[in-house]
Amino acid sequence: MSDTALRIATRKSPLALWQAEHVAQRLRDVNPGLRVELLPLSTRGDEVLDRSLAAIGGKGLFLKELEIALAEGRADLAVHSLKDVPAQLDAQFTLAAILARADCADAWVSNDFASLDELPRGARVGTSSLRRAAQLRARRPDIGVADLRGNVGTRLAKLDRGDYAAIILAVAGLQRMGYDTRIRARLAPPAWLPAPGQAAIAVETRAGDARVIEYVHVLDDAATRRTVGAERALNAALGGDCTMPLGAWCEAQRDGDLHLYGLLGDAHAGRVLRARARGDEPGALGHEVAQLLREQGADALLHR
């Protein structure tokens, strides 16, 4: 295998590079002699930082350039944060592996306040996520929520210079970048819901590339694929938009059933709809929770 190389398309952010190198090392570990190279690419989602993701087209902007590299044969696979991957992929691509999920909770990060409840009235919290903004406003309508873009280090620097009283980031991202000590509290499910697929790393390949899929599939974690499959099915059933204020968390039960929690919010008014259901088939479960949310008025929120 020494003459074989796999090329991984990745964003250039420090977290994306960490995730791509993590996948590369896993592939090397299970395929001694395999050469794995990174192809760092700049995406529009990384370049445009003065507007919200929703305003410039959503999280799918983090994927487009990587998928072009796959389609053109410049890369063999692409590594993504699963939460950034649209619910429906173009037919020419497939998610050949979803790695075992890390801690999916959000992190409360503040230099002065240990929790959301301690935050004074009028304090400013930074987040780039409509989902987080909706849950923040639902719990604390008396605080300000301001947009926050940039990589993990940039966001922490903005907090440290006093732009925000607190910021919310993903626990997994902070841990992967060595910022564990910055986590003051976990905003954890089911009370606070993460994005669908949050904390799972996905490996995308060309759908018909059997050679690459064979290499990559060994990294797939069946239990994670099943639970995040229900979360992504909920997303797909509500329209598949990565920018909608949607929270989802699926937990496997001891009897094998799945318990899916869903949340759809209004990031401006702080209205939050919640639903949950239990079942054994991820796709059907996602659709069931979507229907329960629709019965509460989800469509009105989606088409505001």
According to DSSP, the number of beta strands is: 13
Shape: globular
Strand order of the largest sheet: 2-1-3-10-4
Q: State the helical fraction.
A: 25-40%
Spans of 5+ residues with little confidence (pLDDT < 50)?
A: 49-53, 55-59
Number of helices: 11
Compute the average pLDDT. Answer: 93
Structural class: alpha/beta
Q: How do the SSEs run, as a string of H and E?
A: EHEHHHEEEEHEHEHEEHHEEEHH
Strand residues, percent: 15-25%
Cα Rg: 19 Å
Span between N and C termini? 54 Å
How would you sum up the major sheet? 5 strands, mixed
Structural overview:
The structure is a single chain. This protein has 304 residues and is of the alpha/beta class. It has helices at residues 14-30, 44-47, 53-56, 64-71, 130-139, 152-160, 171-176, 210-217, 222-237, 282-295, 298-302, and strands at 5-11, 35-41, 77-81, 93-98, 106-109, 124-126, 144-146, 166-170, 185-187, 201-206, 246-252, 258-265, 272-279. It has a 5-stranded mixed β-sheet, with helices on both faces. It has a 5-stranded mixed β-sheet with strand order 7-6-8-5-9, with helices on both faces. Strands 11-12-13 form a 3-stranded antiparallel β-sheet. Strand 1 (5-11), helix 1 and strand 2 (35-41) form a beta-alpha-beta unit. The longest helix has 17 residues, at 14-30. It is globular and about 60 Å long.
Give short descriptive properties of this protein.
304 residues; alpha/beta; five-stranded mixed β-sheet; 13 strands
